[in-house]
Amino acid sequence: MNLSFYIVDVFAETKYAGNQLAVFLGADALSAEKMQKIAREINFAESTFITKLDPENRAATIRIFTPDYEMKFAGHPIIGTSWVLMHKIFQNQPEKITVSVPIGEIPVHQSGDLIWLQAAQPEFLDIFSAQEFLSFSNLSSTDFEDSFPIQEVSTGSAFVIVPLKNKKALESLILDKNKMNEWLHSHCKTSHRALYFYCLEENNLSSRMLCIEDNQLKEDAATGSASTCLQAFLLKYDAPEIRIINHQGDFINRPSQIYFDGKRMDNDFDIKIGGKSQFIAKGEWEV
Fold first, then answer.
1. Which of the residues are catalytic?
2. d(Cα 194, Cα 207) in Å, to the nearest integer?
3. What does UniProt list as catalytic (predicted)?
4. Are residues 267 and 281 in the same domain?
5. Total number of domains constituting the chain
6. What residues make up the domain containing 39?
């Protein structure tokens, strides 16, 4: 059995930037175990498997896997898979499609060279003290932006949002893997455990996503799901409307740009993230 697959760079202004993604077609006959093995073999941050295509309604069902586990929702896989569907699979390059993932249907649309997704309503979980982070990082108490809380937020996948005062603190960040892992397991409400550090200086937004996978401390080049959580966080605590570019991946030589366009009316959040995708390769995978 052979599967066609595509490789794209997502949230990338140019090739060989952003976050890599492998998109596998015709995966309906594959078991979850087989998908997981393929995702581990290709070893990108995530790989997607299209299990159902509905060209008439311009819709698709996908499953998302990291090298270690399946995700219910993730931004860069949805954006990148949508680009493949719009530009390589569906006829006439539709500007609007629907992508179904385990948390539900995600509306996706293209405007210019940006593909946008609409995120689910956020859930705001526990708030933490900055003092807790001193035990597993090189941060000092003065590095935190104390006008905002530290809080776990979910729009399908949860992230602990950690505001820092400036880009210098973000760039010089060092974490102790074992102590961080203990803290995540002790404090996070969901099975998806990760930290999303950010700083907002004079309307310049920069971020870093760090997590533990395969007993390693890993940094992601561009994290769409974390960006939807961060956008919700900023809409709640900073301003009821936001249009800004989130810069991620700069410190691992995979510069990424994640576009924010959001509004909040009382407790109703309109969260959209967008990005460019760059086509890299197409091939056949022998299962």
1. 46
2. 13
3. 46
4. no
5. 2
6. 2-110+276-286
